[in-house]
Amino acid sequence: MNRWCVGAGVGVLCVWSFAGWCQSLRLPSYISDHMVVQRDRPMALRGWAAPGVTITIQCGSVHTQVVADAEGRWRAAGPSLRAAETAELLVTDGVATQRVTDIVGGEVWICSGQSNMAMPVRGSADAEVAAGVQMPGLRAFATTAKPAATPQEDMPGSWSRAESPQVLNWYATAFYFGRKLHAELGVPVGLLMVAWGGTPVEAWIPRPVLEKLPVATNFLRESDTYAERYPKLMEDYETKRARLLAQNKQEELRNLRRPHPPADNPTLAAVQFNNRIAPLVGVPVRGAIWYQGEANAGLPRAAHYGELLTALIRSWRDLWGEEFFFGIVQLPNFRVPQTEPVEEASGWAALREQQLRVVRSVAKTGLAVTIDVGQEDNIHPIRKTEVGERLAAWALHGVYGRSEVVPCGPLYRRCERRDGTIVIEFDYAQGLHAKGDRVGSLAVCGADRVWKWAEGRIEQDRLIVRSAEVPEPVAVRYGWADNPPCNLYNEAGLPASPFRTDDFPLPESSSPRR
């Protein structure tokens, strides 16, 4: 076996080659027709050929020659393209020639996560409008890569342009994000669509990084023993399925999940990093957008999500050798609407808090709050336009310097106890208001930590919280539930993130799934 080792700072990641020598000239799948390359950055060109062969590269007026190494790999820096500048790439080894046409300079973004990122445009609320789009400058790379036990050098895939009907198969969140950027910036946008449904964050983190994280110890053990546990998992599955069939419990049957065969399990440690991120390492990008967390939303696991997501961001940045931007979609509202002042055991609330904490602690990150676009009975809410456009608002402000664009809804900054109330201050709170008669999902507690419903009054973009039942409040929570009726917004119409002012220990397990 031959190996290509990459990545300083996060351990050595060895990418196993395909069996045998690469005898013919070949390019990785993302270097293909209609590709968007990050503008004003040298193209990162690479490929395979017979060992020792001289490779001649022509792109526009730039000619380069490199020699394939002993394992048949070659790398070269191509020219930089300005925004909307087009080019054609010719690569030859003297026998075969690879031609890549319709390359364009623009803004390139990785679009990753689990099923809510992968949800296609055709399933979104605005699919009918999206189906008629004609934006040849908005482009996406799609792949069918399977889970991999080790990091890969390439993956199957191709680029397409935003012209119906193929756009209906694009990731909805990515499409609406890219459409907004394309319209506002007036430059081409390339979306690298590399998500997979049902995957935990641990599947997207390099194995050497996971091994250094104490919070990943249990997950690694479960992942590494999956193959030996698989026969028993299948036996239990068949037993339960037979029982549900006999009882004609159709809803439970629909929710019953057949265990993945070990070689095809997309949820194991690092397998998604290996098959969908490793092949892109070194490709110049502006940043990444990330919609994931549902698979990690049970307690106590959710309470450690921030550490894992921070490790993911830093490991990807280390491998790329740059601190690229990273936009995070906060989990929306889901399940039975809130009935108690606080749902102490809400794993979804705990995970939202972790996502907020990452944005507060990791540079060049942003948050798209979606607490108002979820659905009680659908883990895949259809309002993806708001999700994509809220990510775009963050990017326009924080990445592209559009100071007039509000990047986010109100984010909790600090609080102060004052005369039987707690005064809450936010960032991005200009024009703070509640939609409806009162601020929803507010709770306070005293020293006894018994939560009571609270009232909120807005003064000068601050929230003053009180409850007649708690004369000496010590803490406030807003939206601490799976599906809270949150209704705080800023003047840009962006919702406030749920938050808590306390650091009380969270329960060790989540509420039963409803």
Protein architecture, described:
- By secondary structure, the protein is an alpha+beta fold.
- Among the domains are: 207-269, no CATH class; 411-496, no CATH class.
- It has eleven helices and 25 strands.
- Strands 3, 5, 6, 8, 9, 10, 11, 12, 13, 14 and 15 form an eleven-stranded mixed β-sheet that branches.
- Helix 3 crosses helix 11 (384-399) and helix 9 packs parallel to helix 10 (347-361).
- The chain is globular, with a radius of gyration of 25 Å.
- The protein starts with a strand and ends in a 14-residue tail after the last strand.
What does the radius of gyration come to?
25 Å
Low-confidence stretches: 1-22
Secondary-structure class: alpha+beta
End-to-end gap = 49 Å
Number-wise, the strands total 25
The fraction of residues in strands falls at 25-35%
Question: Outline, from the CA principal axes?
Answer: globular
| Helix content percent band | 10-25%
**What characterizes the major β-sheet?**
11 strands, mixed
Number of helices: 11
